[in-house]
Amino acid sequence: RSAAGKPGAPIIFAHRGASGTRPENTMAAFRRAVELGATGIETDVQLSADGEPVLIHDETLSRTAGASGWVGDKTYAELRSLDAGSWYHPEFMGEPIPHLTELLQLGKDTGIVLNIELKNTIRAYSGLEEKVVRAVREYGLESRTILSSFNHYSLALCKKLAPEIRTGVLYMEGLYRPWDYAKTLGADALHAYDPAVTAERVREALEAGGVDYHPFTVNDEARLNALIEMGTAGIITDHPDRALRLLMQRRM
Ligand code: G3P
Ligand code: MG
């Protein structure tokens, strides 16, 4: 049992896949997360101009896909022809921007928990919630998926469309009693920017009705240990192997 009294080890979410050692949001990063033993994968989903759900963090292509312009202005075929690996290291040249269904298939094959972040704050993607929910249901992954977003209207819509799928409220800091707010959204977890997380808040959230904390993005060993000690239900990290090693050490 963890310090906060929540049974079980936290879910270790590989942030954008194992992005500490692979190009973020590529199948190489997702597969590496599985190899390292991560129990969850976080990713970011947007829509192509022709409405296909694709996994990429930025709304524009310049940083990770070697092209100019917006993700949402390109067709799926155009996005698919881009190279999302070379920016990270030449070894990953030609890694494509994945389609959501490729990750869902990996989730189905491995049993890993999927934390799918709907990236619809800077750009509004009409129909994104419906498409993601439909795909998760098609793969039968409702019980092993968490839908998260900084756009909380989007989260409320997800909950309305699919009450059976968990949702996580992404926020930076400064929310007072965020577990109360989560409940007004029907949300199950708080995906809090790490500095907004304290032992007292984790405890209060659990006492107030089982709202889980999944802090992001935590790579520092001392802080990972502190969060494990607090009993957060999940931790989002670029280095899942680091978090898993600390968990193992605690068991010895
Ligand atoms: O889901 C946690 C984290 O991914 C949120 O921020 O910018 O990395 O998508 P960002
Ligand atoms: Mg994200």
UniProtKB/TrEMBL annotation:
Domain GP-PDE as annotated: residue spans: 10-247
InterPro entries reported for this sequence: GP_PDE_dom, PLC-like_Pdiesterase_TIM-brl
Pfam families: GDPD
Classification via CDD domains: GDPD_TtGDE_like (cd08563)
Organism of origin: Saccharibacillus endophyticus
Protein known as: Glycerophosphoryl diester phosphodiesterase
Transmembrane spans: none
